[in-house]
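Long-time lurker, first post. I've been practising inverse folding by hand and with some scripts of my own, and I keep getting stuck on stretches where the structure tokens seem ambiguous. Below is the full token string for one chain I'm working on. Before anyone asks, I'm not after the true native sequence, just a reasonable design that respects the backbone. If someone could post their per-position residues I'd love to compare against what I wrote down in my notebook.
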């Protein structure tokens, strides 16, 4: 349901203004601004990956328009963890002001620094760890360890004169994590005792009952699948899923196999994780891709990107036979990730392609090869009962996730009127322990398309979809400038509509008649003639062929 836009009032003294810029109603683009006393703190700045109805788009950014004129007021960007949907848009914000400090954990900062290096930006950083407290202008920050599918994730408590906000970031409550770093519920409880005025909670799995299974359950399954594989094993996961890569390395060692890392981001991120000690690489297990040809197929595991069906990622190129690794009968492919909503068709297309080539495709639906990195309903309820927040703002999720999360908060005792289901651009003011919606900004999608940022519009994407699905027709006509009489044409060319040009024979006299009638009614303007041609051809195509192609008339006056 579309939201009605209304401008927020001027920010009152001792009031904290919270504005989610992205991440609400979608899985990605996570970004929230916190403003008090004229100063702004940002938590996360991520990207959203395009869906099939957004052809040609590489990335989708948060809309920075609400802060573009206030860059000097930004005191820092807190990054809760190193996933792309939380750090991927940082380079594009730092293009506007390069010295905005980045605040985050060791691994998170290392991942974003590597990304910024490609953009030729050297950031100002503040490395923090769990339990650490920092004062950034009017914001008192405390960082809390949380468990997620990437190491070194942090929740952040933000205290101002207006009250205390606790932002979980992405988290779950795995009690037996691979790195033995659990979500610090003692810190959550302590903050709850002090008083949490606004609780921003991860909503991704809020509609999943119970508790998210343990990561440790995955290791034995991977080991067993690899043990049964007669030839090569290809495992696809997110390029930053350090825990999953660790399990693949361990499973490969147990089966006397070597591991080849595939994909630039996978190689880069795992190199960073290994250098910092977050990834324990057994001696001799990693193998350079060029040397893999010297090993038998049953001694190799390829760790690749592309678990979401991304068209340019390694796995999709394998499925399309556009990669040097030719998948065939006896190969085993493991998709070790969850499906991000909107990517289902792309993923199943890759699964079908690999299966058609003869591979045995193992994925979450037919084997326990992945567990989520997000808290399920039971874990969220646990947190609500520990924190006892006065107000709740569910974040990070599609609309159904936000509603499910809000219902959990209400069941735990949070008054319904203190539970806010917001959308991107909703402005919320916190004062005297009460959070209220005070405005709705017009925030949109900012598309990255090749080297262009923000130049592609929704109208452009609509045109691309029409070209892809319905085809293209151009009509050339030369008319007498004085009488409007057709001198040359009409000549029709089409692409993606019909190979046989004779199909248009029936509409040509209709175009001539329409132009003649328009001229007799006094039309002389070429734009008006073009509209006549477009309507005539469009009506005929729709009636005769049930199609709506892009129609481009070209009218020349002679």
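-- Answer (accepted) --
I ran through it position by position. Result:
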């Amino acid at each position: 349901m579309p939201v009605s836009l209304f401008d927020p009032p001027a920010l009152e003294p001792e009031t904290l203004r919270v504005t989610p810029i992205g991440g609400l109603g979608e899985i990605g683009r996570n970004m929230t601004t916190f403003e008090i006393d004229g100063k702004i703190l940002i938590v996360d700045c991520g990207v959203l990956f395009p869906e099939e109805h957004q052809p040609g788009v590489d990335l989708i950014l948060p809309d920075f328009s609400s802060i573009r004129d206030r860059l000097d007021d930004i005191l820092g960007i807190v990054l809760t963890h190193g996933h792309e949907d939380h750090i991927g848009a940082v380079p594009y914000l730092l293009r506007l002001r390069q010295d905005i400090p980045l605040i985050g954990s060791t691994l998170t900062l290392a991942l974003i620094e590597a990304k910024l290096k490609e953009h030729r930006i050297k950031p100002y950083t503040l490395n923090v760890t769990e339990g650490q407290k920092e004062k950034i202008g009017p914001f008192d920050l405390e960082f809390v360890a949380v468990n997620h599918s990437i190491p070194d994730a942090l929740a952040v408590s933000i205290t101002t004169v207006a009250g205390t906000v606790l932002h979980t970031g992405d988290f779950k409550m795995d009690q037996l994590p691979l790195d033995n770093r659990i979500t610090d519920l003692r810190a959550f409880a302590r903050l709850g005792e002090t008083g949490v005025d606004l609780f921003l909670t991860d909503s991704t799995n809020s509609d999943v009952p119970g508790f998210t299974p343990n990561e440790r359950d995955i290791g034995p399954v991977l080991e067993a699948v690899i043990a049964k594989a007669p030839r090569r094993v290809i495992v696809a996961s997110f390029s930053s899923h350090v825990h999953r890569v660790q399990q693949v390395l361990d499973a490969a060692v147990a089966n006397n196999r070597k591991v080849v890392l595939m994909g630039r981001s996978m190689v880069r991120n795992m190199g960073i994780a290994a250098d910092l000690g977050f990834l324990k690489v057994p001696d001799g297990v990693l193998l350079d891709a060029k040397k893999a040809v010297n090993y038998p197929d049953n001694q190799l595991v390829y760790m690749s990107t592309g678990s979401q069906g991304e068209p340019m990622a390694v796995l999709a190129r394998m499925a399309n036979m556009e990669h040097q690794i030719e998948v065939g009968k006896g190969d085993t492919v493991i998709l070790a990730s969850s499906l991000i909503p909107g990517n289902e068709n792309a993923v199943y297309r890759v699964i079908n392609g690999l299966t058609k080539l003869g591979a045995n495709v193992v994925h979450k639906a037919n084997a326990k090869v992945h567990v989520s990195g997000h808290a399920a309903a039971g874990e969220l309820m646990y947190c609500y009962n520990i924190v006892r927040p006065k107000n709740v703002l569910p974040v990070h999720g599609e609309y159904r996730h936000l509603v499910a999360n809000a219902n959990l908060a209400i069941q735990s005792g949070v008054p319904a009127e203190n539970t806010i289901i917001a959308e991107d651009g909703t402005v919320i003011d916190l004062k005297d322990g009460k959070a209220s919606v005070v405005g709705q900004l017009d925030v949109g999608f900012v598309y990255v398309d090749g080297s262009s940022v923000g130049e592609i519009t929704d109208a452009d994407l609509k045109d691309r979809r029409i070209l892809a699905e319905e085809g293209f027709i151009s009509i050339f006509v030369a008319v007498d400038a004085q009488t409007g009489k057709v001198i040359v044409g009409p000549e029709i060319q089409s692409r993606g509509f019909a190979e046989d040009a004779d199909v248009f024979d029936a509409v040509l006299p209709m175009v001539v008649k329409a132009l003649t009638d328009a001229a007799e009614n006094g039309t002389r303007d070429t734009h008006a003639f073009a509209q006549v041609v477009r309507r005539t051809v469009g009506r005929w195509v729709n009636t005769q062929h049930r199609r709506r192609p892009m129609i481009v008339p070209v009218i020349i006056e002679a």
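A couple of notes from the structure itself: The mean pLDDT is 86. DSSP finds 14 helices and 25 strands in the chain. Happy to go over any region you disagree with.
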